[in-house]
Write a structure and sequence with these properties.
- Helix content is 31%, strand content 16%.
- A hairpin with a 6-residue loop joins β3 and β4.
- α2 crosses α6.
């Protein structure tokens, strides 16, 4: 049965993994180098909320927290969206007043906290490609220029047999950047998404940035230690920020 995301709510009260003493704009840990995004950007978080993600969703949430904090620390206009999958047969979009996106990070965090965790496909193969396609279609339908679109995916499910994902490269759904946090098994899989530069021109040199989803758990644990006075090298965080440019 689906359950409310108690892991995140516990984190707000100070659990080790989900320690959030401040919201975006008031981050206490070490900051990545740079001054935020320098171009208008729409970031859509595509998040797997199936039962197998329960133990790491706290780290996923806090990674999104850091991304939003960084993205809005520059001079550009940045807005955020959500596409969930795993706990329902088809991906669904979180929206506000019939709008596709929100510029306030707190609105996004509220929807993340309220989302249901549980369920998923019996085979363990979630509708990842369908969710990614829905996210790209959503940004296009909202009139977001291709050079402003950034997709950030979090899943521990298998991608290799996803026929929809394999076919996305043939669709007119380009984005400026795509960041995939996936299982170690899928890190070397070829994610051939249509990517463009900031002006919307097709780019042959840009690739999807792929991370091991378990790395963000260790990154979060190290950051929590840093907030308690220990040293911390924010390698993955810096890579994430560079990937969104």
């Amino acid at each position: 049965m689906p359950e409310t995301n108690n892991l995140f709510n516990k984190g707000r009260k100070g659990s080790k993994l989900g320690k959030i003493s401040s919201m975006p704009g008031k981050q206490t840990g070490p900051q990545p180098r740079g001054n935020g995004l320098d171009r208008d950007t729409t970031i859509d978080f595509v998040i797997d909320y199936s039962a197998s993600m329960h133990d790491i969703l706290g780290a996923v949430y806090l990674t999104c927290h850091d991304i939003m904090d960084y993205a809005q620390s520059g001079n550009a206009r940045v807005q955020f969206g959500l596409t969930f999958f795993g706990s329902r047969p088809e991906p669904f979009e979180a929206s506000w007043n019939k709008q596709f996106f929100a510029e306030t990070a707190a609105d996004i965090e509220e929807k993340m906290l309220a989302a249901l965790v549980g369920g998923g496909a019996k085979s363990g193969d979630e509708a990842i490609g369908t969710a990614v396609k829905a996210s790209l279609e959503k940004m296009k339908a909202a009139g977001v220029p291709a050079g402003n679109r950034v997709l950030v995916l979090f899943t521990d499910s298998a991608l290799r047999n996803d026929k929809v994902m394999a076919g996305i490269k043939h669709l007119d759904l380009p984005a400026r950047a795509a960041l995939f946090f996936v299982s170690a098994y899928d890190r070397n899989f070829g994610y051939d998404l249509p990517l463009v530069d900031a002006e919307g021109r097709p780019s042959r040199i840009k690739t999807t940035h792929v991370f091991d989803i378990r790395d963000i758990v260790s990154e979060r644990q190290m950051k929590t230690a840093a907030e308690d006075g220990e040293s911390y090298r924010q390698l993955t965080a810096n890579q994430i920020m560079l990937a969104m440019q």
